[in-house]
Fold this protein.
Amino acid sequence: MSAAETTTPAKLPPSTRHVPPTPPTGTDAPPERRTPKATAAIPWALLAPCLLVLVLVLGYPLVRLVTLSFQKFGQSQLWGFQPAESVGLDNFSQVLGDAEFWAVVVRTIVFAVGCVVLTMVGGMLIALLLQRVSGWMKTLINIVLVASWGMPIIVATTVFKWLFDSDYGIVNALLSKLPGVELIGHNWFASGPQGLAVIMLLVVWGAVPFVVITLGAGLTQVPKELEEAARLDGAGAWGVFRYVTLPILKPIIVMLTTLSVIWDMGVFPQVFVMRNGHPEAEFQLLTTYSYDRAFAVNDYAQGSAIALLTVVLLLGVVAVYMRQMLKIGDVE
Amino acid sequence: MTGTTSTTSTTGTTSTTNVTGTSGVALSAPAKPRRSKAGWNVLGLFVLLTAGFPVYWMLNTAFKPAKDAIDPDPSLLPTGFTLGNFHRALTIADFWGPVGRSLIVSLTVVVIGVIVGMLAALAISRFAFRGRKIVIVGILAVQMVPLVAMIIPVFLLLNDLGQYDRLTGLIITYLTFILPFTVWTLRGFIVNIPKELEEAAMVDGCSRTSAFLRVVFPLLAPGLVATSVYGFIQAWNEYLYALMLMSQKNQTATVWLGNFTTKHGTEYAPMMAGSTLMAVPIVVLFLLVQRKMAAGLTAGAVKG
């Protein structure tokens, strides 16, 4: 019925279905052996177009991002009137010496951590809830979740802008119906923290479905016998979750958390569109800040330096993820 | 549904462990889960309403008469039915131009991406070669690069290549965005096709190529379709690069929607109609392929 039930087992021991690419034995071995050189070239030939595109449009810019952040690069360099000259660490010292930059860093981290925690906790609770509701309710919730997952970010942002509109937004109207709350005409975006809270809600709303569905697939892999055994040994619902479910789901949770951190540190269109293309100072996150430096102030070098610092900030998180992926690779 | 049923019956069993004999369990089991389920269902209903509300409100606003949309005390239920907002959304600014451009870009990206991606996926899933692991790690690592950080150098690169404000520039950029993911997912699908089938065909006299075309390809087709649709959605939904790399006159659909308010004041009802036009086809596509994709993704994610 639901995605969770039909997905391929999320945690399988290396099965016999997957044959490791060892030299085949038996009748079909001779043709392979005869042309070892040709066979070695085939995979690279197959990979070539893919690697070419990736190196050109992802690898080269990545290198360029680094070199750019050590240069002076503004309008005149963009149009080729002046050659880009190296300025050493000037860009970094300027950026790092700017109090606004540090305010943006703190804001970005608080925002991302808030998003990730809400997404993961909310996603886990809903995934657990889905195991307990009736079948039809589960189907309905799954449809709604997948629909909101599939909503283009721009559309979702536009819709949330409308929901939280100060004069005609439904949220203000509904909240004002509560006793003691008077929010008609309240502008959520007059203050940075409130506006970012709305944006956080938007991000979490869009991110939860993926987490729920992936965790749901993982939950079906938790052996019922283990849960039952724990329960017979006197574990309560929390004990079963803490000592049986959670350890089994750990690899999936690590993966999801890492991905969430990367995505939530990279939130851009939500802020950009919500603030009509000109985020105010107290709405700036590292992404919009870097964008602003490059394309509004036309200082491409400083923009790159900020982007590079963002990447470095993320590297720690990515390292954890890569270790996890490599571990999975080792199983193979 | 079987999973759910077995859970509830085990709950019933454990909570009534003192009852001896299977008949007692069978009698008590149906009553208890039903009672506890109702509570969970109420919670489920709450989740359903919260998660679904933005989508509902978008549709509600899109189809209600424009004057009801600016009611300070809006009714939660539909107040009428009109297509006027859609008419307004289509005339307020050129709609089909951006949509056409988005279609060209997304379709081209998907066709090239799936072909190139399938070749690469074959290489890393069906061949043993030196450097295979590095390629796999590389493809995974590339996915980790935050795309937002790359906008400046990509902009400069395309500017240098004379591809700024060209659809081809946007296409090649999107291609790099969807490729790592496409390779990874297709790899998951290929890994699930038993290698023995190919080997059997090769024993029977097929060449490696024809074994692929006659055996693997038909089995891979559903995975290819799902991956294509997913890639299409990614390309269609992209906003930042479309905004940066294309000028106003060449804007794509997402940028069109993003600009909706700034140019024409706040006409929320037509804006929601525009959102509906953008979202419904994508959400339907997504609903169709999501389950298949989840299968491919998990297969890919776990078997390294």
About this structure: The mean pLDDT of chain B is 78.
